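Review session, final week

We close the course with one last complete record, chosen because it touches almost every idea we covered. It is Phosphatase PAP2 family protein, a protein from Flavobacterium hibernum with 277 residues. Go through it on your own first, then we will talk.
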Amino acid sequence: MKMNANIINNYSRLKLSLFFLPLFSLIAIVLFLYSKGALCADKYIEIQKDCFFYINSHLGQYPHLEYNLTQFGDALVSLSFLSLFVVYAPKIWEALLSTLLVSLVLCCPFKSMFAVPRPAAIFDNNTFYIVGRAVCGHNSCPSGHTITIFAILTVLMFGFMPKETKSKILWIFSIMNLGYFLAFTRVAVGAHYPLDIIIGSVIGYLSGLLGIFITRKYKILAWISVKKYYPILILLFVFGCVLLVNRIINDNLIIFYFAFISLAFSLYKIITLYVKK
């Protein structure tokens, strides 16, 4: 499979120096918050209160669109759209699964450590847009949806990286813009503050890099490309379809219909290939 070979080749070229940018960014964010005296939850919220209301008031005017787009931060939805890569580019899925495990490990401790109250837990719920269910927990920072979005986009970005310099710049710019376009829907629906998104994007990018390097060094998930193990993927895809049907019944969002169609088609494709083995 040429596509899979190209992805493996792209991943093999990555260097450890790529970790400098996300680590430097995290340090810069911490120093910025320290300079503002915002390393505590109350001040962290205060310094971005106006920015939160501004973004929310503008983007929140399109609730149906924003609520659909924000679902891309749900791994079930995103992976459903990428499910066909199991057949044509299994290396992508190896990296994706490693990446999502890393992002889970990084996300949960940070949320517990910072314990930042969500906007709906602090502000009068009648003063800003809340789309969907109001989230009132104390786990706002970082944004888990944003981590997922950027972790997945990082895997795709490096996997399909063009060779020419100009094309690379355009590709990276497009991916990053897409990431923030999707991630800031979390502010639009009233679930997160802007800095939750920024921090989440850096952690997501870091998770993507770690997932790629783990996949490159260890072959734990190499079974994904072996046809005799397709029944495992078939069961997972069937389970995913059931979960998406449940989402459709409960929320009836168009994004869930498209995700279901994509996953169902991939399920059909993989069953067909397995039967023809």
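Two points worth writing down before the exam:
The longest helix spans residues 90-114.
Residues 162 and 169 are 9 Å apart (CA to CA).
Good luck, everyone.
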